[in-house]
Amino acid sequence: MPESGSLVSRAIRWDTVVGALLIVLLLFSFSFVDGFGNAFNLSFLIGSALPIALIALPMTMLVVAGEIDLSVASTAGLSGAVMGKLWNQGMTIETIIPICLILGVVCGLVNGLLVTRLGLPSLAVTIGTLAAYRGIAQIVLGSDAVTDFPTQYLDFAAGRIGDTFVPYALLPFLVLLAIALVVLHATPFGRSLFAIGASEEAARFAGVRVKRHKLILFTVTGLVASLTGVFWALHYASARYDNATGLELSVIAAVLLGGIDFDGGKGTLGGAIAGVFLLGVLQNVMSLQDVSAQSQIVVTGVLLVVSVLGPRVARQISVARAASSSP
Amino acid sequence: MRRTSLRRACAAVAAVSSLALALTACGGTTKEDVKSENTGAAASGGKADPNAALKKGLTVGFLPKQVNNPYFTSSDKGGEAALKELGSSYKEVGPSSATDTSGQVNYVNTLTQQRVDAMAVSAQDPGALCPALKQAMKNDIKVVTYDSDTTADCRNAFVSQASAEDLGRTEVQLLAEQIGYKGEIAILSAAQTATNQNTWIDFMKEELKDPKYKDVKLVKVAYGDDDAQKSFQQTQGLLQEYPNLKGIISPTTVGIKAAAQYLSGSKYKGKVKLTGLGTPNDMRKYVKNGTVDGFELWDPAKLGELAARTAVALVSGQITGKEGETFTAGDMGSYTIGKDGVISLGKPTVFDKKNIDQFNF
Hints:
Shape of chain A: globular
Largest sheet of chain B: 6 strands, parallel
Order of helices and strands of chain A: HHHHHHHHHHHHHH
Distance between the termini of chain A: 11 Å
Distance between the termini of chain B: 70 Å
Radius of gyration of chain B: 24 Å
Order of helices and strands of chain B: HHEHEHEHEEHEHEHEHEHEHEEEE
Radius of gyration of chain A: 21 Å
Strand content of chain A: under 5%
Structural class of chain A: mainly alpha
Shape of chain B: globular
Largest interface: A-B, 60 and 58 residues
Structural class of chain B: alpha/beta
Strand content of chain B: 15-25%
Strand order of the largest sheet of chain B: 2-1-3-4-5-13
Helix content of chain A: over 70%
Oligomer: heterodimer
C-alpha cells in the first residue's frame, strides 16, 4: 500500500510534528494561560525569540550541509562590543552598523577558511573561535556597558507597531526568512547543500563546488550573527562583551528540535523556525505559570532528547511498515 | 578558480566599507547628539501623601539576579516576612544564572503579565531591563530596585545596601588592619560587568590612595563570575601568581566563601588574610578555624524587608520616589529618599569571632 505508506510517513515527519505541537501549545496557551494572549506579551515573546530565529536561518543551512558553527554567539557579542566601543568614541551609528556587519563577515570568513582550506572539522574550529571572539570582545569593551544608543534605533529594536503584537523587527526578519526559504528549498545552491550533507564525496563527483559553498555558508552565518549582535545590543539597550552568551546553544537546541539531522542532508527551515518558537512559547508559558527556572531547563532538556529520539523511532516504524507490507 | 572567488569577496568587503565611510561624511547620529536629546529623566507622576494608609492585599514580585543564590534567598525571605506582616502577598521569580540578562528581562515581562502591584528587582545590567521595566511602570506597576540598580529613569526607587563608598572604603580599612598596613593585596570580584562590584572596587582604589596605605599594593582584580568553582580556581591562580600576597578582598558572598574554602585547605591558611562581603552562615566555619579574622555585610534580610516596605509605600502613595520624601518602614524606622530616588539601608556590620553567633542568615 504505497499511498497510505507515504501519507503516514509525511504525518510522522518530524518537522510536521513540531509544527503541530507548536499549534497545539498556542491553542492551549491562548485559552488557558492568563496573560499569554495579549498583544504586549506576544510581541515580547517574538522579540526575545528573534535573535535565535535569525541565527537559526544560516545555522539550518550549515547543519544541512553537515557543518556547524558554535561561534555565532561570540560573533554577536563581539559585534555588540565593537558597536559600543565605536559609539563611545563618537562615531555615528549609521557608520558603526555597517562596520559591525563587515566584522561579522570577517569572523565568518575566518571560520570558513579554516574549515575549507585547512580541512579542519568545523566543531573544533568554531569552539576555538567561540572563545577567541568572546575574548576579543572583552578586550575591546572591557567591563563597560554602553546603554545610550539613539532612541529611534532602540524603539525600532524593542518596540512594536502600535498596539499590535507585531514587533517592528519582525518585518525585516520575515523578509530574511523568505529569502532563506527560497535559497534553501528552491535554488540549485540550496539543493546542493542537501547533497553535500548526505555525501560530500558524491556531491563533489556530481560537480558541486563543495568548499566554495561551505565558505559562503560560514561567511553568511558570520554576517547574520553580527546582525543579531547589533539587534541584541539595541533590543536590550545594552552593549556588553558578554551579550548573547550561550545563544549558540539555544539556536542549536531549536534547530535540533526542528528535526534538522545533525548527520547532515535532512531538514527544513520551517521545522527550525517552528522549533525556535516552540521553545520560546514553552518558556514564556512556563514562566507565566510560575514554573521555576531550574524546572524549565529540565523540561527543555527532556524535549530535546525526545526530539532526537522521535525522528529515529518514526523512521524505524516506517521501515518496519515497509518491510511488513512489501511481501 | 579559488583565487577569483576570494578576490571577489575582498572586493565586496572593500566596497561595503567605503560605502560605510561615505555615510560618515553625510552625517548621522552620534553619542553627542543623544546626550543633548536626553535632557530630563522621566519623572514619576502623582503626588506623595505621607499620611496615606498602607494598602493590604497587594502582590509584590521579587526578581533577584539569580534564584538559588543564598544571599538573594535570605534577602527575599526578609521581603516575604515584611509583606506577610503588611497583609500582602509575595512571590519570587528569576533566572538560574546571574549572567542570563535576557532571561531576567523575560521575567520582568512575566511579572507585568501577571499584573503584580509592584516588583523588587536586583538588576543584572543597568540598561538591559529598562524597556521592560518602563513597560511595567506604564501598566501602573511600581518598580523598586534593590542590591543592584538600573539607570534612574527605569524604576521608582532604589534601595541601596549601604552606600557604595562606605562599603568600598571599609573593606580596605578592615583588610589593612589585618595585614598591618603592609604588603600586596588582590581583589576577587564577581562578573566583570557587575555594576555594584565595579563601583565598590573604584572606591577601594580611592581609599588606597590615602598615604597611610603607602605600603599596601593592589596587584590584581580577578573575576570569579559568582561561580564557586571559578572563584576557587581564581584564588588558587592569585596565590600562584603572587606568592607574596598578604590579603584578598572578595566583595561577593560566593567569592569570599570559595576563597575561604581554598585558603583553609592550603598552606596559606591564616597567613593570607581574607575579608570582604560574606554571610555569617557561609563564613562561620572559616572564622572559627582561623582562616578569616573578620568580614562585613549588611543584613540582606533587612535589605529585602526595606525593598518590600518601599514597594508597599509606593503603591499606597505615601511616596513617589522623589528626593526628600520620608516614610516609616515598620520597626526599621524612618527613611528619607535621597538624590535620584536612592534609599540607603545604613552602614555595614562587621562580623568576627565575637559576634558571629548572634546572626543567622
